[in-house]
Amino acid sequence: MLHDVRTGGARADVPEQLEKLLKGTTTVGVKFRDGVVIASDKRATSGTFVASKSAVKTIQLTDYAVATISGLVADGQYLVNHVRAMAELYQLDMERPLNLRGMAKLLSVMLRNYRPYFLMAHLIVGGVDREGPHLFNVDFFGTLTEEDYLATGSGSPVAISVIEEGYSPDMDKESALRLVISGMIAALSRDSATGDGIDVVVIDKDGVRFLSREEVTRLWKELSG
Questions:
Q1: SS (H, E, C) the chain
Q2: Is pTM beyond 0.90 here?
């Protein structure tokens, strides 16, 4: 139960509202030995209407970190743009990069500060900083956890079942890449709100690299065949 400071009553309707709004998308993250692999689909929906087939849900924050968005696009973009600006200011002021936990905590604080209202966004923050690879889950309540692998959105139950079965903490980049794409293929095949291709990004000591369409297509065909 969530508390409404305006009326003193319980806001039992909020979870139902979230359930109605957060219906589309699949985003996935997996941490491997030297970095992280993150993927998201490209379909944006409004109810049963497919509003876009080329939505960008994985956004680069810095040259060593990305974030994914599931939920309302405007809310997610607001949060991501704010944290990206804060990371740039921190770099200028402190003369060192803001670590991944710092970025995830900023998102968490912003989400919590909006209560009793909500920014309808569920985010994955992943990358590699001076402490190594990290993968953080930040939900619309402001809950912050660090994970080895995770998925968000309507296709997440399907994707996470594939990833959980195949995950190993000492897996290499190629294994993590194949596992993430396998999870996304499963979600695209079983969840109607997920579709129209995927964006895949690898973050390691060499920085952030988005896979080309040709690379994704080749791996997709290999794993689907």
A1: CCECCCCCCECCHHHHHHHHHCCCCEEEEEEECCEEEEEEECCEEECCEEEECCCCCEEEEECCEEEEEEECHHHHHHHHHHHHHHHHHHHHHHCCCCCHHHHHHHHHHHHHHCCCCCCCEEEEEEEEECCEEEEEEECCCCCEEECCEEEEECCHHHHHHHHHHHCCCCCCHHHHHHHHHHHHHHHHHHCCCCCCCEEEEEEECCEEEECCHHHHHHHHHHHHC
A2: no
